[in-house]
Structure formats: C-alpha cells, structure tokens
Amino acid sequence: MDEKPAYLQIENLKKFKSFKQDSLERKKNTQSTVFDDKYMENYEYENAKFIEKFGHQFGSITMQNYKGIDYVFARSHEGYWLLELDNNKPKAYFLGLSFSHFSFNSIKNKNFIVNGFLQLEGSLV
Q1: What contacts 16, CB < 8 A, 6 or more positions away?
Q2: Which of 63, 103, 56 is nearest to 82 (CA)?
Q3: CB neighbour list of residue 54: distance below 8 Å, 6 or more residues apart
Q4: 50-93 confidence digits (pLDDT tens)
Q5: Residue 14: what pLDDT?
Q6: Which of 24, 91, 110, 117 could form a disulfide linkage to 84, CB 3.0–4.6 angstroms apart?
Q7: Which 3 state secondary structure label does DSSP give 29?
C-alpha cells in the first residue's frame, strides 16, 4: 500500500481469522440478532453517554474504557470512526476507511485500544 496515510501502520499477521471465516460468522450472528424494541432499548442504554453527545449519527460497534477515557469504535454512512469521551468532552476521529475498501474482523470481545493505540484487524477489500 504505497498510498496509505502516514498515521496508518499495516502489519501482516501470521495468525489471523480469514476474511471468509469472519464474513460467515458475522452474517450468522447478524441473522440471529432480532432488532426489536428490547434490543434497541438495550443499545440506547449501553450507548447513552455517546448518544447524548453525538446523537444517532453513529452506530456503535464496540466500546472500551482505557485509562479513564471512554472510546467507541463506530460507523456512519461515511465509514468508520473512533469516538472519544474524555472528561465528558466528545471527539470524533474519522479513520479514513470506508466499507467498500476495508472490512474489520468482528471485535466485540477484544480491546481495540492497546497501549494507547487503536489496533484493529481486518481485510483490505
């Protein structure tokens, strides 16, 4: 990737989940999820402080607290974002990655802020 942004570091992992495997798992999990009122109430409850600051312009993928700062890895119609709440001050960082070019591996149960850096696994499409 000769034209990647300077802040983006790409590492070829030796052990990883394939794009195909992750896509099939994601499809299976999405199909089994019922987006009913109870699901939406739970989503609104879990994301309340981010919704208060950012409204509904982002969809939360996963959350993490790192050293007292709350982060959300999120998406909007433009692409992927990192949202931050530090002392109740909101910041949104567009990652410069869109759905048509990059697919993130499912990260629900993994930390995405590691040693102060955003770390995500995925596939260039």
Answers
A1: 105, 121
A2: 63
A3: 83, 90, 92
A4: 889 998 898 887 889 999 999 998 889 888 899 999 999 999 99
A5: 72
A6: 91
A7: helix
